[in-house]
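Weekly puzzle thread! Below is a chain. First person to post its structure in token form gets bragging rights.
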Amino acid sequence: MTAAVKSAVVTAAGGGAAAAGAGMGAVRPAGGTGAELAARFPARPVISSWPQTRASRPEVLARLLAAPFALGNALSQQTRRQGLLTVVSWLESQAGDTWQERWAASGAEAAADWRDLVACWRTGRAGGPGRPAHIGPGLLVLICADVIRPGLAWLSGFAPARRGLAEEMARTRDSAAFAELAGMCQRSAVGTQTGQTALLRVALIMAAKGGIVAGITVGDCLELLEVTGQVAARLHGGVHSPLFYQLLLDMGGFPVDAPAAMRVFSGRGQPTCAQLIDRYGIACQPVRDVLVDYLAERKPSSDFSSLQRLAYLLGKLFWADLEAHHPGISTLKLPRDVAAAWKQRIMTKTKTTRAADGTAATAVSARLDGRSVLTAVRSMYLDIAEWADDDPRWVPWAVRSPVSASEVSHKKDRARRKSRMDQRTRERLPVLPALTAWASSERQATAGRLQAAQGTAAGALFTAGGQTLRRSVMTTKTTGRTWAEDPGTGKRRDLTFEEHRGFWAWATVEVLRFTGIRIEELTELSHHSLVQYRLPGTGELIPLLQITPSKTDEERLLVASPELADVLSTIMSRIRGTRPDVPLVVSYDKNERVYNPPMPLLFQWRCRLENRAVGETSLRKYLDHALAAIGVKDASGHALRYTFHDFRRLFITDAIMHGMPPHIAQLVAGHRDVNTTMGYKAVYPEEVINGHRAFIARRRALRPAGEYRTPTDQEWAEFLGHFERRKVALGDCGRSYDTPCIHEHSCFSELTV
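Winning reply:
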């Protein structure tokens, strides 16, 4: 391990808890489900009266025709004045004591276009000569002056109403705050259009709720997203962009317990046991209730992923299948023919595919986990029978299991699975060096192309990473990314994304092959995972990688090899950038259906103003792209595909083949049973041959050399004659043992001659 790498990793290990998130203020909790967070952070209520809306007509006109609402250009101000007078006169003709009441009574928000109402008022009939000119700017100044507050739904859905709203709000109501928000977008390389959309959404909240930027609450932001998701119109960059929330959060106007990201509000939490079963539309209510109660009993001792899997096995593959083939069935005591037919169906699965011409093709194949379904059903029957001794509510359902003990034997299935997994490992282990080399070269090439493009003028050619490209000419800065195009084909390429993909594909391959950890453990690696251990004898600091509890609920420590330490150091340098700490990010646990509290994760990337976790789905795509690039095929001629768990098998196989004791490999892998670890290790034919030959060599070395002399011709003939006599004794007609044949006792007569 180089001194620089060792220093970087050991420093990170020693100061992880202190450095991670330093300067970030209080750690913001992830919160609960979206509904719980919405209850904790309500939106400001809509009020009907405030000082500006109670002002008289002369007061409103005097205020709105003066600074800061008046425009510097005389011609523009004249058109705005005409529009303002028209709208004020139209509102004055409506019922109500305040301008807000008159706006609500006019029906403008319910009309297809409020300007038609003004035209009808001026002409006295519908379908008049046309809409009055300049009434749009007149309404805009009334909104920005907080004289009226239209609803969020109307502002979001009616495009003319929000034209120029952000710019006018910034000019007339809160110029300092809007300037700060715009500066934050510029410093974070946010695209022009994306930044304008975020500022517009801030202005929409101010228009509907009043006040300045500092008065916006978390609930207001959530209400805006809910409303914009219901209207048909889309706001430039999409209705669910969280940038405006991140801007307001980074300004420091929200409480310390506000969620660190807007997407946390979308968390629905874990479905209940009843919701898990009701997915499958079970018709028999008593059996449905039994399945729900059974899941509730198993829930305390199971994680959510296992509980969801159990609901699928019992709800869909067991009872929903029975109801589909035997409508009206209402008892767990299955007739033998019904149980036999179900067990036969469950061992196969049907897949329907469509060809290019639209025809459907149905294929039936063996279900690899069919025994798991039988095991789950048998376990439910046995559990109910046991619980019936203590709880009377289970007594009516305690019946004979339709699945016998012999039918849930997994011995043959385990042998077949072991054979399949060994073959996968033997196919993929030789490919690993090529994959590693490509990932490393691709990381360097994409980084070189991005750096060269950023230093090249728009429209100019540059050569980097073995390719010649032209820096794209962008009329407007809309994405914050660096683009280039092939001079020959003109195809545009996002060099920023290519560099991002190249780096994280390399990081994924390197960390998985050096550690053998699970994918959920990889995505949960954080700055706190780097710890250190001081050897008692020498005092040397050993960097360790702490793996958080996952499948076995047991944490473990791995020694960081020099190569792994180099990779981790590179990752930390990337995510830190110029700052001294590792940013805190919110990640989603798909297995438990919850958002985790902000953590200094190692696998994270910068997205505008926010750091986000690199998700498992993205890593899967990056790995597939790498495998497609090297063009490796499997034994069947199809493109070779790695799963994340393949790296785990490769790591264990390689470690044991190079001398690591199996019980140590068990601890490193985090298995409870050493047999599980040995099941991951692939067996190679040459390994068996070499091991057997080494055993024979050791045995020869221990026996006297005289026993290994060359036999004489007489001894060799006697040795061969022994096998001839055995052939006669046993018979050569292919009969079964212990059955008579024509050669019976022939050997005895030969031996007595």
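Puzzle host: Confirmed. Bonus trivia for everyone else. DSSP finds 30 helices and 13 strands in the chain.
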